[in-house]
User: Fold these one by one.
Assistant:
Number 1:
Amino acid sequence: AQKITQTQPGMFVQEKEAVTLDCTYDTSDPSYGLFWYKQPSSGEMIFLIYQGSYDQQNATEGRYSLNFQKARKSANLVISASQLGDSAMYFCAMRETARSNTNAGKSTFGDGTTLTVKP
Amino acid sequence: DAGVTQSPTHLIKTRGQQVTLRCSPKSGHDTVSWYQQALGQGPQFIFQYYEEEERQRGNFPDRFSGHQFPNYSSELNVNALLLGDSALYLCASSPGWTGVGETQYFGPGTRLLVL
């Protein structure tokens, strides 16, 4: 069964500094996608970045990058040059996608990390 | 281009009642998934609809049921509400139900309070 673990309930970072949010996952499916979402206090989940299990390069989207270490089953989110507006809950999620997998299409989320950016 | 929309935004019900939540997917998306997010936790997958059929289901009782319409919009129904059903219910849409790289986009959610 797929599982996502986020071991940092809360993180603090100084404005303009970089921060890494940890995510480890467990799956036996060779085909999967990894996602990071941001959830401000308003509640809406905002998509940040995606990494496919077969992607050779680490994904990047603006100030967000994903440090994908497949052998370690790790998919950490790196936010560079933190801004006050980055303060939110961050979720790592995974979806198994092999068509032979009866669980294909289900998404599993971690319990999240609350990031607070200090001025 | 409208994103995912959900209605209502907030709802208060009493135990034993039934509730229907609604979701319209992002333009061009044909797959809708529903999630339950309890306070302080990550979203839990309820089920996913594609081509008007339930394609995947999470570990939720039969009290949770859904429907997808020909225009791809969807409803989540919860019968015999329990206090533990109080949560934020999120709808997500995507342009395919299993493909790698098909990102789900979420709506603003419906906050359900069961008294």
Number 2:
Amino acid sequence: KQEVTQIPAALSVPEGENLVLNCSFTDSAIYNLQWFRQDPGKGLTSLLLIQSSQREQTSGRLNASLDKSSGRSTLYIAASQPGDSATYLCAVPGGGATNKLIFGTGTLLAVQP
Amino acid sequence: NAGVMQNPRHLVRRRGQEARLRCSPMKGHSHVYWYRQLPEEGLKFMVYLQKENIIDESGMPKERFSAEFPKEGPSILRIQQVVRGDSAAYFCASSPFQDHEQFFGPGTRLTVL
């Protein structure tokens, strides 16, 4: 059974710092991994989707890497800004005949101005 | 191309009433997923539907909950005889194919008094 863990659960950094969020999963037989952002009381915004054949994906100040063999993904945020404050979630397909997503519990990020 | 739409955005029900949550997928998307986010918990898969068919309902409570995705119109998540424990944010996601990135709606926040 796939389990997804995110560390740390919460993170507070001053503006301008580079930071790394971690996601680990127990079953490496995944074909992609998604990172999402969720603002308080809001829906999910997809940030990056990494296919299993890729090692990393970049979008602006965000870079996500995927190491299937070790069951890990990292989300790197460069030059953090107060507007980056949100909960960051990673998710992998749960396997089987469907594409249901298994989510981690998230990292709550606060970027202090 | 409008994104995934959910309505209502907020729904208040008294114990014992019925709740109907609607999800209109993105244009051209025939795969719909429902997820639930309980207070202080992560997102959990509930049900996966493809037009007129329930493909996977392994995450759906056995009683009081049902889902449909008719040939015409939105997908409906129906909760009968709601209880306080049903209070949560319910998110819908859609995709054009089974093994494809999922796009999430803004969610419906259900409060049971």
